[in-house]
Amino acid sequence: MKKIILLIVILPLFSCKDTQGRLTLTQGVHISNITIISSEDATYSPYVGHLVIEKDKIVYLDKNEPSVSGKFEKIDGTGKFVIPGLIDSHVHITEVQGMLPHHMEKYPELAEEFNKQMPRSYLYHGFTTLINLGGISEEQLTSFNAQPIKPDLFHTGRSGASVANGYPMNFAPEQFRFEGTPNFVYLESEADNIPAKFEPSDHTPKAVVSRTKNSGAIAVKSYYESGFRNMPKLPVPTKSIMDDLLSEAHSNGLVLTVHGNSLEAHSFLADVGVDVIAHGLWNWGKYKDVPKDSLPTEIRNVLDLQIQKQIGYTPTLTVIAGEEALADDSFLSNPELNKIVPKKLLEWYRTEEGKWFAKDLFGDYPAEEIHAIYGRIQAHAKLALKYLSDNGGLILFGTDTPSAPTYGNQPGHNGFWELKLMDEAGVPLDQILASATINNAKAFKLFSDVGSIKVGKKANLILMTKNPLKEIEAYNAIENIVLRGKVLIRENLSAKQ
Ligand SMILES: [Zn+2]
Fold first, then answer.
1. CA 238–ligand 1 middle distance (angstroms)
2. pLDDT band for position 19 (50/70/90)?
3. How many Å lie between the centroid of ligand 1 and the Cα of residue 181?
4. Are 221 and 161 a contacting pair, CB within 8 Å?
5. Residue ranges of the Amidohydrolase-related domain (predicted)?
6. pLDDT digits (tens, 9 = 90+) for 27-58
7. Is a pLDDT exceeding 50 seen at residue 133?
8. Per-residue confidence at 10, pLDDT binned at 50, 70, 90?
9. CATH code 2.30.40.10 region(s) in the chain
10. pLDDT tens, 361-388?
11. In what order do the strands lie in the sheet with 86-91?
C-alpha cells in the first residue's frame, strides 16, 4: 500500500501524461505538423510530426497528434522545420568586439549596450548554448547570467592552462600576467622569468586542472602556439605537460581542448591525442605557398591521425575572415549587422578611432594584397576541413568569437558566417548541422541535456521556414527560438535601433 501511494505521489513529477495518453500541461507548448530534423547518431531522417513541451523540457515527440489539454501555446508548424538549438563550442563572451580596456573605459555606455545585446544576438542566430574557451571571472559569469534572456553558458575556468609566459599570457604586461592567469602551468625552462611568490606545486597540471574543475568548468583550455606575425618565439608545453593535462582532465571528468592552428601544433596535439583542437589547420608553415588546391602529404598525415583518433576539429574559419574583414569597409556596410550590433557601436567602428586594430594590423598595406594573403590561408583552411569531412573526421562547430579585438567577429552573426564558410568549403549540410548540435554536445559531455530533440531533453529549439539539410540560408530563415521551453520571436531579439 505504501508503495502505491509513493508511486502516485512520484508519478506526476515525471510525466504529465494520464492513463489514456492525454497530456495535461500547466505551462506547455504544442508544435504541430512540423518537419522534425534531429538525430542521435548524425544520420538524418526528417519526418512531419508533433512536439510537446512542458515547462523547460520536451515531453512528447511523435508522428501521431497527441491529445493535449491544460494551459499551453499552440504553434502550427505546417511547412516549417525544427532543429535542436545550436551550440558554439568556442566563444569569448568576456570581450567587447573591437575594443581594448581603455576604449571601454572611455565609452562605458557603448560597452554596456554591447553587453546587453550580446546574448540576444547569439539567440537571434539560433545559438542556445555557448562554451567560453578562455578565462572568465565570477563577476563576468554573474553579469551574463543576470541578463533576462541568454543562451546557456559553459566555461573553462578563471583562466586557460597557458604555460608560463606562453600564449596568450604573453599579451599581458609582465607585472599583471601571472595574477591574470591563475591557472598558468609552471615551465622549468621559464623558472627565471616567473616571480618567486608563485609556488611550482600550485602550478602543476594536477593543481591547475583541480582548480579549473572547482570553478565549475566543463573543460580545460590549453594552448600550443609558438607565435605568429612578428612575435618572438614563445614557450610551448612539453609533451609530458600536455599528457598530464589530458590525464588530469579525464580523471576529473573534464574535456581537454587546445588552441593550435599550425602544422607544428596540430601534429603535436594529434600525437598526444587531446580531446579537441580549438582551431583548424591553416598555418601550413613551410607549405604556406603551395597552390590553393593542393594538400601536402605531411598535412594529410596529420589529419589522418586526427581522424583515426577522432579528435574534435574546430574549423573556426571566421578567425581568418574576421581579420580580413578589416581590410575594407564592405563588412561594416552589411545590413545584417544592424540586427545584432547596437547602432552607436556600429557608428563608432566607422570612426578613425574605431578602426585602430585595422591600422595596427595592416597599416597602409593595399587591400588587394591583404585579400590575396588571407585568401590563400582561407583556401588552405577549407581544404583541410574538406579532407576531414570526406574522410570521417569529427568536426565540431566553433567560431572563436571574437578571435582578436576585431569588429569583424560579431556575436551570432559570426556563427551564421562560419556555417556559410563551412558550406563553401564543401562540407555537406547534414555534417554541418551535426557539428553544431550532436557532435558538440557529445564532445563536451552535454548530450544528456541538449544537442538533439528527444523526450526528456531541454527544450532548446529553432523553428525555420527553410530546410537546413537543403540550403545553408535556412540558418538565416529562423522564425522562433525556443529557449528552455520559452518561445521567442526572432525579430524581438534584434538590436533596438
Ligand atoms: Zn579563442
1. 21
2. low
3. 15
4. yes
5. 81-487
6. 999 999 999 999 999 999 999 999 999 999 99
7. yes
8. very low
9. 2-84+453-490
10. 999 999 999 999 999 999 999 999 999 9
11. 86-91, 127-132, 152-155
CATH label, 86-157+254-443, candidates 3.20.20.140, 3.40.50.150, 3.40.710.10, 1.10.760.10: 3.20.20.140
> Exposure pattern of 237-272 as b/e (b: 16+ CB <10 Å)?
beeebbebbbebbeeeebbbbbbbbbbbbbbbbbeb
Identity of the amino acid at 219 = A
Cell reading at 434: 551535426
pLDDT band at 231 (very low <50, low <70, confident <90, very high): confident
Q: Are 282 and 261 in contact (CB under 8 A)?
A: yes
pLDDT at 1 over 70: no
Ligand 1: distance of its center to the CA of 131 in Å? 10
Rounded to whole angstroms, how far apart are CA atoms 462 and 453? Answer: 11
- What type of residue is 95? E
Helix axes 239-251, 205-214, angle to 10 degrees: 40
Mention every residue, 6+ apart, whose C-beta is less than 8 A from residue 252: 209, 210, 212, 213
Tell which phi-psi region holds residue 412, choosing left (phi > 0), alpha (psi between -120 and 50) or beta.
left
> How far, in Å, is the centroid of ligand 1 from the Cα of 315?
12
Residues of the chain with CATH 3.20.20.140: 86-157+254-443
Sheet with strand 276-277: strands edge to edge: 219-223, 255-259, 276-277, 312-313, 394-395
CA 328 to ligand 1 centroid distance, Å: 24
Beta strands (DSSP E) in 142-266 are 152-155, 219-223, 255-259
Mapped onto helix, strand or coil, the DSSP state of residue 30 is strand
How far, in Å, is the centroid of ligand 1 from the Cα of 274? 17
Annotate 101-155 with DSSP letters as a single string. Answer: HHHHHH-HHHHHHHHHHHHHHHHHTTEEEEEE-S---HHHHHHHHTSSS--EEEE
CA of 402 to the centre of ligand 1 (A): 7
Burial class (CB in 10 A: 0-12, 13-18, 19+), 297: exposed
* Structure confidence by residue, pLDDT tens digits, 168-184: 999 999 889 999 999 99
- The burial of 158, by beta-carbon neighbours within 10 Å (0-12 exposed, 13-18 middle, 19 or more buried), is given as buried
Q: Please determine, for residue 6, whether its predicted confidence score (pLDDT) is greater than 50.
A: no
Question: What percentage of the chain reaches a pLDDT higher than 70?
Answer: 96
pLDDT for the residue 289:
94
Distance 456 CA to ligand 1 centre (A): 32
462 CB-side CA count, 13 A: 33
| CATH architecture of the domain formed by 2-84+453-490 | Roll (2.30)
Before 168, cis peptide (omega within 30)?
Answer: yes
